[in-house]
Amino acid sequence: MTGMRRAMHLATAAGLAGLIWTGPGAAEPVWLQIEAQPSLPQAEERARDWAGMFPDIAGFAMSTGWYAIAIGPFADTAEATARLRTLRREGLIPGDSYVSDGGRFRGQFWPNGTAPLPGVAGTPAPEAPAPDTAPETAAAEPPPAEAPPAAPEIAAVPEPVTPVETLAESQRLEAGLDREARMEIQAALEWQGFYNATIDGAFGRGTRAAIAAWQAAQGFAPTGVLASAQQTQLLAAVAADRAALGLETVEETDAGIAIDLPLGLVEFDRYDPPFVIYRAKDGSGVTALLLSQTGDQNALYGLYDRMQTLALVPAEGERSRNRSGFTISGQSDSLHSWTEAHLAGGLIKGFTLAWPPGQEAKMARVLAAMKASFRPIGSTALDPSLGTPMTVTRGDLMAGLERRHPEFARSGAFIDDKGAVLTAGAGLDACTKITIEDEEAELAFADPALGIAVLRPKKPLAPAGIVTFETAPTAPGAQVAVAGFSYPEALTAPVLSFGTLSDLTGLAGEAGRARLAVHTLAGDAGGPVLDGSGALVGVVLPRAVDGTKLTPADLTEAVQAMPLVQVLAEHGFMPTASEATGTLAAEDLAVEAQKFTVQIACWK
Predict the structure, then answer these.
(1) Are 173 and 184 part of one and the same domain?
(2) What is the per-residue pLDDT for 567?
(3) Residues 202 and 282 in one domain
(4) Is 229 inside any structural domain?
């Protein structure tokens, strides 16, 4: 190659950029042939597909009658071979791709309208300019008068030239990136909202399309290959975003969790097992919880139910639960949140992020970073006694986190083995959601005249027992007991309130109702009224709350059992008749009542 001259040109037609060597004795370009098609339409279609991944795609008619699709050109075989190995290793080109000297290439069909490339077989070289053959004149013209000497020119100082990185140079730089650097670019594109596929370091069509979209958004030519300056700009922009949010990796060794947290928005508050609480910082309105506890599938489901009682988790939004984990998306006019937890090896770990509306773009980035970085560490969970007194009760484990409260809570009784519940009907039609012992339910039917309703769980339940109905009317003066959740916030089991059946009419003399000399509270509404054997003789009705009536605390109104049996049968529910006789001791009656008395909650 001694004495041979090599000139470098940039081919720009139809977006093709590459290095072309021309001139006498110039080195022939080398290509990486990746595919051949038998017809021109097929070849053009495939070239268009490949161009979405590789901007330096070219297509040539071959001397064999086929049409080649190739990447290049390359300076020499060594460069082409290095690119071949890289692309094969990443699985981006067919395994039978090979390095070609272009000896069989003829006319070029891709990019469309591209001028024939010098150095390709069958392409005519540009004609040299014709020598000057103008004839001499018969008489020589006299030489022109000698002009006065011109003033000496002042040499212009050349402007500094900033080197322009060609596409081929960008491709060579990209080929030298290791997998970790490529994954960093994909993660940055994901952060910027241009990439939503796997972060794997393989630059396939999805990554190329994302790069091109990012380039177009920044005003660059969408080549699909980052120039070194563009790569720097992309990574620097993401680094600046993360710095503004204060995203840092936090290792909570007590909880056994490592995760990226936005420490510009939240700060550590305290341990409140099973939570590590990060409160809002500088009025950001953002809160984060790390969830960590030991347990099995039942504990996981219990945490799932408990999370939905927190004010931090709005009632509306998608929910998903399986044997190994759950996700909860909460949305309201004042708060958005995301919760996820996973069960593995007897450990339940996860996190919650909550933020005010209007910050969706920023918080989507934060949430993506938290999801991508979350990982359990170690083999332990948060110590239940950490940060709390040893005398703390089970209900207090949620202390310090405001709980979301239902609009109202009342009582009811299971009436069949699928979990249908009989309760008071007032106000249930206005509930956004109704729950039976934290399980979502729907209104099967309501009877406004009687003031009762039947709820059906959306997923079948397995009651410990069902209430049975009296078969003969109870006489006034008989001893009765009301089973209900008198203190729904304090007690998780029903209590019995004892008294007597005063009258078999309502306060206004209504038939089918009864008056009880029993002291009841709001949570007892809907609860069963039981005789001494444990049979249902009525259902407690809510007290008037409009201020129009003021009744004694020990005067309670109820619906009698007989009209209940009739309306239940009309709606396809078959009440079970009681066969019990005699009178149960108070403690035995309480045990029986706990089997079928349940808590109902109305949520808005």
Answers:
(1) yes
(2) 95
(3) no
(4) yes
In this structure, the answer to whether residues 210 and 306 fall within a common structural domain is no
Q: State whether the Cα torsion 21-22-23-28 is positive or negative.
A: positive
The two beta strands, 513-517 and 30-37, are unpaired
Domain boundary among 228, 245, 262: 245
Domain count of the fold of the chain: 4
- One-letter amino acid identity for 469? F
Q: Which of 110, 141, 176 is the last residue in one of the domains?
A: 110
- Helix (H), strand (E) at residue 46: helix 40-51
| Cis-peptide, bond into residue 111, ω within 30° of zero | yes
Q: How many CB atoms lie within 10 A of CB 336?
A: 21
Q: Are 362 and 252 part of one and the same domain?
A: yes
Per-residue confidence (pLDDT) for residue 210, from 0 to 100 = 94
Give the model's pLDDT for residue 321.
93
CB 47 within 8 A of CB 93: no
- Give the distance, in angstroms, between the CA of residue 330 and the centroid of all CA atoms in the same chain: 12
Identify the CA nearest to 529 among candidates 577, 563, 479, 575.
479
What is the pLDDT, as a whole number, of residue 87? Answer: 85
Could you tell me which residues come within 8 angstroms of residue 218 by beta carbon, excluding any fewer than 6 positions away? 230, 233
Judgement on whether residues 251 and 369 belong to the same structural domain of the protein:
yes
DSSP string, 242-288: HHHHTEEEEEETTTTEEEEEETTTEEEEEEETTEEEEEESTT---EE
Instruction: Tell me: do 251 and 358 sit in the same domain.
Output: yes
Asked whether residue 10 is assigned to any structural domain, the reply reads no
pLDDT average per 10 residues of sequence, the chain (604 residues) = 31 33 53 89 88 86 88 90 85 85 88 51 39 38 46 46 74 88 92 88 91 93 91 89 87 94 93 93 93 93 88 89 94 93 95 92 89 92 70 40 75 95 94 89 95 93 93 91 84 86 90 92 94 95 70 86 94 92 90 94 86
Residues whose CB is less than 8 angstroms from the CB of residue 29 and which lie 6 or more positions away in sequence, other chains included: 18, 19, 20, 21, 72, 73, 74, 75, 102, 117, 119, 120
**Residue 21 counted as domain residue:** no
Check residue 137 and give its pLDDT. Answer: 34
pTM, 2 dp: 0.43
450 shares a domain with 369 = no
Whether residue 343 is contained in a domain is answered as yes
Query: Which pLDDT does position 550 carry in this prediction?
Result: 63
Domain around 54:
30-110
247-252 and 257-262 beta bridge pairing: antiparallel
pLDDT at 254: 92
Q: 158: helix, coil or strand?
A: coil
